[in-house]
Amino acid sequence: MWTDPARASIVNERGERLVAVHAVGEAAVTAPFGFALALVMQGSCVLLVRNRRRKAWELPGGYVDAGESAAHCAVREVMEETGQRATNPRWRALMELEVPDRADRGFLVKHGALYRVEVSSVAPFDPTDEIEAIGWWPPGNPPDGTSAIDAALLAYAG
């Protein structure tokens, strides 16, 4: 778990706050996963998606469907958002986010899974209603406009 309080208080453009990242084994996690993110690697570069609505570069990912594993969610979201065929999902960390609860104006804690996946070749990308562009960058040098939480999670790409 991060011990540096400055890193544990990263807030993104949606008002979500990264509470902690636990680099524990996947089997040790008892909380249900609400979402999964993917560190998509090809060689030494990581894939980021440009979210059309938020105008931010992000890691591909999304909500875990009922009955779906977090690993499958990560692979599925990569395909849906980028058209890339991800393989070999490898557990990286458990994320805890505080997200605004629109109903009572408080915050909810959500647990997410972070996986590292690979692609062997890059498929053509067609923009969607959600994703306007994709790009490959070295994890230590993401583009301007990368969401703060996603930029912090790039440390787990190795």
Topology order in helix (H) and strand (E) letters: EEEEEEHEEEH
Specify the structural class.
mainly beta
CATH class: Alpha Beta
Which CATH architecture would you pick?
Alpha-Beta Complex
Q: What is the radius of gyration?
A: 15 Å
- What's the tally of helices? 2
- Tell me, rounded to a whole number, the average pLDDT: 90
The profile of the biggest β sheet is: 9 strands, mixed
Count the beta strands: 9
| Shape field | globular
Could you name the CATH homologous superfamily?
Answer: Nucleoside Triphosphate Pyrophosphohydrolase
Classify the fold: give the CATH topology.
Nucleoside Triphosphate Pyrophosphohydrolase
Quote the beta fraction. 35-45%
Overall number of domains: 1
Helix content: 10-25%
Distance between the termini: 17 Å
Uncertain segments are 1-7
Task: List the SSEs and their pairings.
Blueprint: E1 10-11, E2 17-22, E3 35-42, E4 45-51, E5 56-58, E6 61-63, H1 70-82, E7 87-101, E8 106-118, E9 131-137, H2 148-153
Parallel strand pairs: 3-8
Antiparallel strand pairs: 1-2, 2-7, 3-4, 3-6, 4-5, 4-9, 7-8
At a glance:
A hairpin with a 4-residue loop joins strand 4 (45-51) and strand 5. This protein has helices at residues 70-82, 148-153; strands at residues 10-11, 17-22, 35-42, 45-51, 56-58, 61-63, 87-101, 106-118, 131-137. It is built from two helices and nine strands.
Structure overview:
By secondary structure, this protein is mostly beta strands. The protein has one domain: Alpha-Beta Complex (Nucleoside Triphosphate Pyrophosphohydrolase). The chain is 12% helix and 41% strand. It is built from two helices and nine strands, in the order E-E-E-E-E-E-H-E-E-E-H. It has helices spanning 70-82, 148-153; strands spanning 10-11, 17-22, 35-42, 45-51, 56-58, 61-63, 87-101, 106-118, 131-137. Strands 1, 2, 3, 4, 5, 6, 7, 8 and 9 form a nine-stranded mixed sheet that branches. Residues 1-7 have low confidence and may be disordered.
